[in-house]
Amino acid sequence: MRYLDNRAQPRGAQTNKGTPMSELRFTVEHEWLRQEANGLVTVGITAYAQDALGDVVFVQLPELQAYAAGDEVAVLESVKAASNIGMPLDGEVVEVNPDLEASPELVNAEPLGQGWFFRFRPADASALAGLLDQDAYERLLNAKADA
Asked: What's the CA dihedral at 98, 112, 75, 78 to 10 degrees?
């Protein structure tokens, strides 16, 4: 599980926010999602993604509005490349991380914590269960490493 954080994470490990890694969901585009107690979903990128990008120097966050799954909602620029962040599920973005504008390096320093991008209200909260769980995401990363 070397890619979910910058160091190996034993089973039952937690994110910087204290959420068990097993409670996160993941996309094949290397985004993580965390269901909050208030029903909102927080989105960020995994350590694997931030490592592939290199040092993030700019983040353009989404507008507060409704998006369809797959819509490009945010842009990351790094010393290596630019990358778009897609909306993982249908829903309405209701909050963005205000710290990223002044400190885009948080994406690299704390990808599973203070480096989150936005929170949204999903159109269908049950759709979160259709994303990758921790085990499936680990298999995806291992397949990439073996390729």
From this structure: 110
